Amino acid sequence: MTSTAGSTHRARPLAIVTGASVGIGEALAWELAVHGYDLALVARDRTRLDEVGAEIAGAHGITTTSVGLDLTDANAPEALLEALGGRTDRLDVVVNNAGFGKFGPFSTIPVDDSDAMIQLNIAALTRLTRLVIPGMLERGRGRILNVASTAAFQPGPRMAVYYATKAYVLSFSEALFEELRGSGVTVTTLCPGPTKTEFHARADMEDSALLRKGWIMSAEKVARLGYRGMARGKRVVTPGLANRLGTILGRISPRGFAARVVYRLQAPRGRKTA
Asked: Which SS3 state, helix, strand or coil, does residue 22 take?
């Protein structure tokens, strides 16, 4: 299940990154390595994890551990921590990044896909967070970065389940931020907008009018800003001025109006909506 690469001459703090094989997760792994963290990289694609881990270890002289797990399995968070063994006593950072979405009317999305979205985006994130917080509290330090989305701020017609799961992540994480205030443990929510990753292809939304060139940020920039906000113990990080303005509008607009706007933005390019 696991493999390691890199130097182990000194004990460095450990960071877990889920969904670390591509996109924002991979970019966050590189960012954490720059700041001296050993890494536990988690995803289904073990081969890709080994490749990413070897590249990062070679570039930054840290130790990486590949943990090939399907986080839609309800017992995966426990299996992850078991795979790390005694190294969890130096676990300083947990990045809950793994997640996916599906584009289309709710009635057309396969039931298994909707169930898997809820299990991965909500249940796995919640369970892993619950498992690691007691140890962090005992040590008096720790940072959790939960990756949500600008989708968290309004309903999302044509991606109803995905938007709802990210609203959960934001609400859950903001509540924990307040619960843990003053404990030495912080929970930061990263809310990126459209980002250059494989997410859109997997979600079958490459033809969505939402994906306009000027709106899309690189995964590396999202990761850099996310890490910076987490390190400072910020409650919410929304990278990019346009994205921040969009979340403000999402909060203050009537819910029905916001849903209608998203419905239009999610229409395939060039297709008018009623």
From this structure: coil
For 198-222, the pLDDT digits (tens) are 554 554 555 555 555 446 889 999 9
Of 162, 163, 168, 227, the active-site residue reads 162
State the virtual CA torsion across 71, 74, 79, 84 in degrees, nearest 10.
Answer: 50
For residues 14-37, give the mean pLDDT.
Answer: 97
**CATH topology classification for 4-265:** Rossmann fold (3.40.50)
Tell me the percentage of the chain whose pLDDT exceeds 90: 73
Eight-class DSSP state of 92: E
Domain ranges of the chain: 4-265
Specify the amino acid at residue 170.
L
Residue with tokens 């994906």: 211
Tokens representing 183 are: 């404990």
Residue 250 parent element (H or E): helix 241-252
**Average pLDDT over every residue of 261-269:** 70
Q: Can you name the residues that pair with 95 across neighbouring β-strands?
A: 17, 145
DSSP 59-86: HH---EEEEE--TTSTTHHHHHHHHHGG
- Whether residue 163 lies in the annotated active site: no
Burial of 170 (0-12, 13-18, 19+ CB in 10 A): buried
Instruction: Evaluate whether 93 touches 37 at the Cβ level (below 8 Å).
Output: yes
Share in percent of the chain as helix, strand, coil (round to 5): 50, 15, 30
Token pair 């929304």 is at which residue?
A: 238
